[in-house]
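Sanity check record (used in CI):
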Amino acid sequence: MKAPVARWIGRIGRFLHYLMIVVMGLAALGALLPAIPVLGSIGPLLVSPFGSWIVILSLAAIAAIMRGRQQRRRLALAMATIAGFAAGGTAVVESRQIAVARANGVDIDLARTLWLGAVRHESAPPVLARYGTHEGQPLRLAIYRPAATPGGRAAPVLVYVHGGGWGGGTLFDRRPDMRWFADLGYVVMSVEYTLSSENRHTWDVAEPQIACALSWIGANAARYGGDPARLALFGESAGGNLVLNVSYRAAAGRLNATCPGQLPRIAAVVAPYPVLDASRMYANRDVIAGPFARVMTINYTGGTPDRYPDRYAAISSPTHIARGAPPTLLLPGYADHLLPPAVAHDFARKAKAAGIEVRLIGFPSGEHSFDQMSGSIGSQLVRGATLQFLERHGVKP
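Expected output for Alpha/beta hydrolase:
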C-alpha cells in the first residue's frame, strides 16, 4: 500500500514542479512580448515583482531535472528548456529595467528584490487629522512624521493622493512608501477624498476636496513639523490624474476649492502611470483592462464621453496644460494595458511645448501598478527617481 501512495505523491510532485516551470515560462514570454493578448498582461504582472525569484526557481528546476532520474526523458528535456527560457527571458527583462534605473541615476539592490512585501515595524504610526467634511462624513489626512529633522528645522511636505480608479483605495495605501519618505526627513500627508461608485459620480467633487486639503496643509503643516513652502504632490493612476489636474489648475488660477484658505505653492508633482486622457481611457479595448477602464470612467463621470464630453474634458490633464505649471515627473509602465504609455508621451510633448519642465521615465515590461510590491525593481526606481526629482526642485530635508 505504501508503494502506490509514494508513487502518487511523486507524480503529484512532478506535476506541480512542471506546472510551476510552465507558468514561469509563460510569464517570461508575456513580459518579453506584452503585445500578446492576455498573456502580455499577466506576464509583466508576475515578472515585475517576482523576477528575481523566477530566475532562481527556474535555475533550481533545471538542476533538479538534471540531477533526477527521469523516466520520460523527452518531457524532462522539454521542461528543462522551458525553465531555461524562463530564467533567461526574465533575466533579460530585469536587465532592461535595471539599465533604465541606472541611466536615470537610481541604483538597484537586487538583494532587496528577494525580500518582497516585507513591512518592517514602523517607527511611528501615522497621525490622523480631519481637513473637512462631505455630506456629513469626515475627510481625513494620514500624517507620517520623520523621527528627526536636521537642525530641528521644519521638514519638506510630500502630499500623497491615492489611486484606485477614483472609486477605490484609501488614505493608507502605499504605507511602506510613505513611511520610507518620512524616515528620510519628509512630513508625508496622505489625503482622503470621496470615492465614486455606480450611483455617485465625483468628477466635480474630488479635485476641490484635494484643494481643500492643500489649503488645510498650508495652514497647519507647521503643527506637524512641516514647511508648506517646500511642498510637492505625489499620486499614482487616478491619484496621478488628481495631482496633475490640481497642480496645473492651481498654477493657472483655475482651481476652485470648496473651503476657505490659501493654497500653498506646489514645487513639483510626481505621477506614476497617471490617468491623463479620460476619453482615451474609456476607449480602451484591451480584453482584460478595457472593461475595467470603462467602468472606472463611467462611475467617475456619470456616463460616456459622447454623453458628457465636457466632463471628460474637465478631468483630462491635457485640458489644464498652461505655462507656469510645476515641474512634472511621469513614470509610465511600458507594458501598461490599462493606460498605454503612448498617452503619457503625447502629454509630455504638449506640456513641454507649453514651457513646462517634464521628465518621463518609462519602465520596461511594466504593467499598471508595477511598483506596488515593496522591494521590487519598479518600487526602487519610483522611490529613487522621485527622491532625486524632489531634491532637484528644492523639496528636500
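The first strand starts at residue 127 and ends at 134. If this sentence no longer matches the regenerated C-alpha cells, the check is flagged for review.
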